[in-house]
């Protein structure tokens, strides 16, 4: 397009005149342009595309409006330009103008406007374009069919319409296959995506790096390391083993499948790395709560990579999971130094991090300083208040959120109910539960579990049981588990038996229920039944998972497990425990050992 792409004029008040002057000034060979108005139209179209490439959307529109005659190429360039700049509504508006001006679109016009319909998630408009494609005889065009398939895969509730387009296509290319695989994978159907990829291989279709990347993502979506390894072998066989996007996808697959040792080995074998590579490995370690994420972050910076918002989101979440406040503050400082403190996602992550690290005041400070808040911001703050026992503050924040115009969702109600439960605010929690219908939120198993826990902690166990009986669906293990915990806390063996048996009926390997039943029978003197529960528990091969605690002292994280005797820090821990026991005795505290009957047998 000659030198036009490099020119960015300060003003385009008379863009058409500018184009004509530019043609004369640059002495473009007349052989390269058609004579007359058509020549100016071609150059104007090229300049218009250059404006869009440089983000000069208003200038492109001004030039378009000044053109006395517009052909299909110019209309298409305008629609494509708006679509490429994420101005999808304007793209659709120009398309409507084009049709109203009796200018018939071509295949490229329809493919670009279908991209806009897809991004707008507007199935109705996409259907209208499909109808026009049939009317104009363009349905068989590869560009149109690929765009139609992509639109239907994104906008429909199922893949049926996209597959119908795919089956009727007489010609397919790699974009066709990749679009269908992507459609399945993005809606969480990794198996469907892998099935299409298998058909692609059997059809001996042309493969490219993107088709492998999306197939690898499908493996990650279903957590299948086996399929992932097979595709890894196919990647190497087809010569894409050194392609960076493919390598990043492979790394992500190993991380999401939980194979961090393989991911780590693959990471160090990679011939090339970019920031996405480091972010992928960092996110993998963060998801599994490993403190190795902190080392990865330090190593990344030492190798000269500048962290971005995604990096800081992962490392902030890692600090939250490990409850390392000092590290979290250092990360926060890095965010401020790079001018990223205004990023909404990062601010939400910081609220969560400070709350989990025990500094709820810092969480509130971040929340108050936010210029913009979304549902996640409010929810994170409410969860933080609930975890710290500030139920009244959580309820007050909920009311403020509703007044601000943000509608609560299921997660918000769970956060408030949990906060009320831990703070003993039964009436406030029930008021919140009753208000769910005002926001078209239907209580599910988890919500009912929260309400049962709320009532149970407050001693209203019979009321909790009646709530369970009145549920519109069969209670699951978590609901009965909440009732079981309440019976244990308030020493109600009869109802505790019922709840424990319900839990075991739904989840036979639930160790806690066996222990609870065994203890109830032992307290009643039914030693035979107690022993039978222990035998059944041993047959399941399950054991209660030992709890782990950790604390940060002088930038060092120390972890503790029941019965742990390894490490010098355990001597300090036992010394502190003995001191606490002494203080408890002096305060006149009498421990309740009833719930610990026979627990030593299963080693907990």
TrEMBL record:
InterPro entries: E_motif, PPR_At4g14850-like_plant, PPR_rpt, TPR-like_helical_dom_sf. Transmembrane segments: none annotated. Gene3D superfamilies: Tetratricopeptide repeat domain. The keyword Repeat applies. PROSITE patterns: PPR. Keywords: Repeat. PPR repeats lie at residues 40-74, 173-207, 243-273, 274-307, 343-373, 374-408, 409-443. It holds the Pfam family E_motif. GO terms for biological process: RNA modification. GO terms for molecular function: RNA binding. This is Smr domain-containing protein. It comes from Gossypium tomentosum (Hawaiian cotton). The lineage of its organism: Eukaryota, Viridiplantae, Streptophyta, Embryophyta, Tracheophyta.
């Amino acid at each position: 397009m000659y030198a036009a792409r490099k020119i960015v004029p300060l003003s385009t008040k008379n863009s058409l005149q500018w184009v004509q002057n530019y043609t004369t000034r640059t002495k473009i060979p007349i052989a390269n342009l058609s004579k007359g108005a058509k020549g100016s139209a071609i150059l104007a179209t090229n300049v218009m595309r250059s404006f869009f490439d440089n983000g000069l959307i208003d200038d492109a529109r001004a030039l378009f409006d000044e053109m006395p005659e517009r052909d299909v190429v110019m209309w298409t360039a305008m629609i494509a330009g708006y679509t490429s700049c994420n101005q999808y509504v304007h793209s659709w508006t120009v398309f409507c103008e084009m049709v109203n001006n009796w200018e018939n679109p071509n295949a490229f016009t329809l493919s670009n406007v279908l991209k806009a319909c897809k991004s707008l998630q507007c199935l109705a408009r996409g259907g209208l374009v499909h109808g026009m494609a049939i009317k104009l005889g363009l349905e068989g065009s590869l560009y149109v069919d690929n765009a139609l398939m992509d639109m239907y895969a994104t906008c429909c509730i199922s893949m049926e319409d996209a597959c119908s387009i795919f089956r009727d296509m007489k010609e397919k290319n790699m974009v066709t296959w990749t679009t269908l695989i992507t459609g399945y994978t993005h809606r969480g159907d990794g198996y469907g995506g892998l099935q299409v990829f298998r058909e692609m291989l059997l059809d001996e279709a042309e493969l490219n790096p993107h088709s492998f990347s999306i197939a690898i993502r499908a493996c990650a979506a279903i957590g299948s390391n086996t399929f992932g390894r097979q595709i890894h072998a196919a990647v190497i066989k087809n010569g894409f083993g050194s392609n960076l996007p493919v390598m990043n996808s492979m790394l992500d697959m190993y991380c999401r499948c939980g194979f961090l040792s393989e991911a780590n080995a693959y990471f160090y074998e990679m011939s090339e790395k970019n920031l996405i590579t480091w972010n992928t490995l960092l996110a993998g370690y963060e998801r599994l709560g490993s403190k190795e994420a902190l080392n990865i972050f330090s190593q990344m910076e030492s190798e000269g990579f500048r962290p971005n918002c995604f990096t800081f989101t992962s490392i902030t979440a890692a600090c939250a999971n490990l409850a390392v406040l000092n590290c979290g503050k250092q990360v926060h400082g890095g965010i401020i130094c790079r001018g990223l403190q205004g990023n909404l996602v990062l601010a939400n992550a910081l609220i969560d991090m400070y709350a989990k690290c025990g500094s709820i005041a810092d969480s509130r400070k971040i929340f108050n300083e936010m210029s913009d808040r979304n549902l996640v911001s409010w929810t994170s703050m409410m969860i933080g208040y609930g975890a710290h026992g500030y139920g009244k503050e959580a309820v007050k924040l909920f009311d403020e959120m509703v007044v601000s115009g943000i509608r609560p969702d299921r997660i918000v109600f769970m956060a408030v109910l949990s906060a009320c439960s831990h703070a003993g605010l039964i009436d406030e929690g029930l008021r919140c539960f009753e208000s769910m219908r005002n926001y078209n939120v239907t209580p599910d198993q988890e919500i009912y579990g929260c309400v049962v826990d709320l009532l149970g902690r407050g001693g209203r166990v019979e009321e909790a049981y009646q709530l369970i009986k009145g549920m519109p669906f069969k209670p699951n293990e978590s609901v009965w588990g909440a009732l079981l915990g309440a019976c244990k806390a308030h020493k109600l063996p009869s109802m505790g038996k019922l709840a424990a048996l319900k839990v075991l009926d739904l989840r036979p390997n639930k160790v806690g229920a066996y222990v609870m039943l065994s203890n109830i029978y032992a307290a009643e003197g039914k030693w035979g039944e107690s022993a039978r529960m222990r035998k059944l528990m041993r047959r399941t091969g399950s054991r209660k998972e030992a709890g782990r605690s950790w604390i940060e002292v002088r930038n060092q994280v120390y972890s503790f497990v029941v019965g742990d005797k390894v490490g010098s820090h355990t001597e300090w821990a036992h010394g502190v425990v003995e001191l606490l026991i002494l203080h408890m005795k002096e305060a006149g505290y009498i421990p309740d050992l009833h719930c610990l009957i026979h627990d030593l047998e299963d080693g907990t």
